[in-house]
């Protein structure tokens, strides 16, 4: 056996320890023709998001450069993961599991933009925001058929905007004392539970968003505050909009609630400008509290 | 006995073979070949062939800009162009996209541009079979009869329908059908010179219950029209430059809220035996006749 002198060994160890820091990118890239042995830069892209993220500085970005499938991944640091405009970057999961897991650490800030997630009716979660992270932004995504779970599952602060969620067991499931903002989101064909659930003491604001056909409920607050502005709930097999549980309230303004089995249910604060007609029962077991617009 | 097992094994292999040949994600490209495997690295040329090689519930993606030709969706599937790709389909006869996906099927048509050249029957015809049809981010132009016609549940979102005989036609003679129209621009529905059923922006008939939001019909025979037992709910819609802006006919129910109805020959028309409910927040001005018939006032909550 060849013995290295102590000083040389120390030098080698220090070098090895330093290598990951040297190898990180501020901007990493993936491509369907890339290789995970590459440097994950734009001229030398990797194949998968998981490897590209591992070579990206905290706060950096990973960009998909070409259309195709990239596979499930975890975001383990602050990062933006995006498809370049004009690129169709799909994450398909044909079985149980999660397409994207956010575990970005305390104070982590994550943006997921322009990705299309497919669960084929079997997968459990499109985007899991339950592990760690401070703020997660989901923008311009398509989340399709996570039939054994939720399009988005959040126990940590999220914003969701300009996103379409179709055919999931629940669209957006929030169950923790967090803040969430949902803007211009279309939720279709919810297969069992809720288009949007605000639970666990959360405070959720939804604007200009719709739930069309839920085989469970549309928008429901359970022991949480759910503010709805300019939303539509239609074709829910159970409740269109509901506020239930201790302290649970749905505040509604400029909303249309129609063609649900039950329109408004439970504790509802209304600004007196909602259109609730054509449900099996428009107002069912509900306490409607009028509040004045200012 | 051994020969018997071999024969059985061979038969099982032959029966199973089609299952191996399917993709979860297929692809088409204008430089593709229909003899290819229809995968992203080896795309096909036409949607029809790509669909035939796609698993039920899978997707077909157009990777490059150009024309792809009419197709039939014969299974649950998503058919789309990648963002930034202009995938056009031209058909001067029949339907450009026919949906015949089977009972219980979900179909998504996204980001395609359909052209009828003034002659094709329909841009999207959901008249074969299917349970939930989604049309998103499409352009549908120049179909002699229908931009979209559906006998099955349908949503149309973020789409422009121009120069068609009628814009969106939702009807089923025998079964309940639901529709939702979100952020759609319907322009210049032409049809016959004398306005009748042949030129309507959005039609809900018979067993249809349809909601419409943030949607515009400009220049039509009827802007928004419901007949027989259909129900049509309009929120933040605009009807302009039509013979009749919003028309409830033959026992139908229309609800209107936050709508603008202006510059039509008749703004609102309610036939005897039909209903139009207003939440008293609509702007009906500047029509030849603003209101013909009786409106029913309902309270906002």
Describe this structure in words.
- The complex is a heterodimer of chains A (294) and B (301).
- Chain A has 294 residues and is mostly beta strands.
- Chain A has one domain: Pectate Lyase C-like (3 Solenoid), CATH 2.160.20.10.
- Chain A has helices at residues 6-22, 49-54; strands at 25-30, 56-64, 68-69, 73-75, 79-83, 89-92, 98-103, 109-113, 115-118, 125-132, 135-139, 142-144, 150-154, 158-166, 170-175, 179-190, 194-199, 203-207, 210-214, 217-222, 225-229, 232-236, 239-244, 249-253, 256-258, 262-270, 275-276, 281-290.
- In chain A, strand 1, helix 2 (49-54) and strand 2 form a beta-alpha-beta unit.
- Residues 12-22 of chain A have low confidence and may be disordered.
- Chain B is built from 2 helices and 26 strands.
- Chain B has a 26-stranded parallel beta sheet that branches.
- Residues 1-5 and 7-20 of chain B have low confidence and may be disordered.
- Helix content of chain B is 8%, strand content 55%.
- Chain B has 2 domains: 22-164; 168-301, no CATH class.
- Chain B is mainly beta and 301 residues long.
- The interface between A and B is large, with 46 and 43 residues.
Give the arrangement of secondary structure elements:
The complex is a heterodimer of chains A (294) and B (301).
Chain A: H1 6-22, E1 25-30, H2 49-54, E2 56-64, E3 68-69, E4 73-75, E5 79-83, E6 89-92, E7 98-103, E8 109-113, E9 115-118, E10 125-132, E11 135-139, E12 142-144, E13 150-154, E14 158-166, E15 170-175, E16 179-190, E17 194-199, E18 203-207, E19 210-214, E20 217-222, E21 225-229, E22 232-236, E23 239-244, E24 249-253, E25 256-258, E26 262-270, E27 275-276, E28 281-290
Parallel strand pairs in A: 1-2, 2-5, 3-6, 4-7, 5-8, 6-9, 7-10, 8-11, 9-12, 10-13, 11-14, 12-14, 13-15, 14-16, 15-17, 16-18, 16-19, 17-20, 18-21, 19-22, 20-23, 21-24, 22-25, 23-26, 24-26, 25-27, 26-28
Chain B: H1 2-20, E1 23-28, H2 47-52, E2 54-62, E3 66-67, E4 71-73, E5 77-81, E6 87-90, E7 95-100, E8 106-110, E9 112-115, E10 122-129, E11 132-136, E12 139-141, E13 146-150, E14 153-162, E15 166-187, E16 200-213, E17 216-227, E18 231-235, E19 238-249, E20 253-257, E21 260-262, E22 266-270, E23 275-278, E24 283-284, E25 289-292, E26 296-297
